[in-house]
Design goal:
Layout: E1 2-11, E2 19-29, E3 34-39, H1 45-53, E4 60-65, E5 68-69, H2 75-79, E6 82-85, H3 99-107, H4 121-132, H5 151-164, E7 169-173, H6 181-198, E8 202-205, H7 209-214, E9 218-223, E10 226-232, H8 233-237, H9 241-252, H10 260-263
Parallel strand pairs: 3-8, 3-9, 6-7, 7-8
Antiparallel strand pairs: 1-2, 1-4, 4-5, 9-10
The structure holds adenosine-5'-triphosphate and magnesium ion.
Length: 264
């Protein structure tokens, strides 16, 4: 479903601020793979997702999505095949629009202009059904402005919107990191459910090693712009936090103390 070959990105090349962010990443995801991504601060996790989404042009390498070379497509052109949820709950939804309007926007994604924005009763009922599965009481608040929702409610809604039209690939970048622990757990549980139900191919960045082990069928660890550990299936389910810590220590030596991955 996704193939990265030699994906390379250096920011501010040729300046004093030169930053190699990805150093020739090779990665292949089969359809239905749910891959959790961990790694220290600045390891290149967000850049990896951004390169797949087309936020920045590639220096080198190619990206293939579902058999199509998307390396030269714009972020906008790639968007219709991708679902994305970011750390910031404000980012995925429009605050001054109603819940139902946000959902209608997500449903019409990639269908171009000129469509009616009116929502039929059937459509509203369908949204209410979907919202009820979030178990956050949003099904009775279809006409509420999204700006009135809590961060957790907004992230849950964003996740629903990102998966309403089954994306070829779901990209989650620490999408629960800004939430309180209880809400984060709920949104994470919802994530597992949605991914499984639609069999979505997924890359989920997290700095929580327990979550990285518990969710998904495969785990990769990044360090200094590349994948340094890739484990799946039974081997992954048998992993312990201690194993990951040891791996992390092997590669990063003395840089451990301040890392969010360890602080969480
Ligand atoms: N837009 C940008 N401009 C310049 N440098 C960038 C940009 N985005 C990322 N970088 C740099 O690239 C490197 C990788 O950053 P990235 O955000 O991918 O790390 P990360 O693994 O997501 O880290 P974190 O856990 O802190 O979110 C870092 O050195 C970072 O400073
Ligand atoms: Mg990041």
């Amino acid at each position: 479903m996704l193939t990265l070959r030699n994906v390379t990105k250096t920011f501010n090349r040729g300046t004093v601020n030169e930053k190699p962010a990805l150093t020739g990443v090779n990665l292949h995801l089969a359809a239905g793979d749910f891959v959790t991504v961990i790694g220290g601060n600045g390891a290149g996790k967000s850049t990896l997702l951004n390169m797949i989404a087309g936020v920045f042009p590639l220096d080198l390498g190619t990206i293939e999505l579902d058999g199509e070379d998307v390396s030269r497509l714009s972020e906008h052109q790639r968007a219709k095949n991708l679902g994305r949820v970011f750390q910031d709950p404000m980012r995925g939804t429009a605050a001054d629009m109603q819940i139902v309007e946000n959902l209608a926007l997500a449903r019409r994604r990639g269908e171009g202009r000129g469509l009616s924005w009116g929502t039929s009763r059937e459509e509203r009922e369908e949204y209410a059904r979907q919202l009820a599965t979030l178990d956050l009481g949003l099904e009775s608040r279809l006409s509420s402005k999204v700006g009135l929702l809590s961060g957790g409610q907004r992230q849950a809604l964003t996740l629903l919107m990102a998966t309403l039209k089954k994306p070829k690939l779901l990209l989650l970048d620490e999408h629960t990191a800004a939430l309180d622990p209880k809400t984060a757990a709920k949104v994470l549980e919802l994530t597992g459910r949605v991914v499984e139900e639609h069999r979505l191919t997924t890359l989920m960045v997290t700095h929580n090693m327990n979550d990285a082990i518990r969710l998904g069928n495969r785990l990769i660890m990044m360090h200094e712009g590349n994948v340094i550990f890739d484990v799946s299936g039974d081997k992954k389910s048998q992993l312990r936090v201690g194993d990951l810590l040891q791996k992390f220590e092997e590669v990063s030596g003395g840089e451990l103390a301040n890392d969010r991955m360890l602080l969480s």
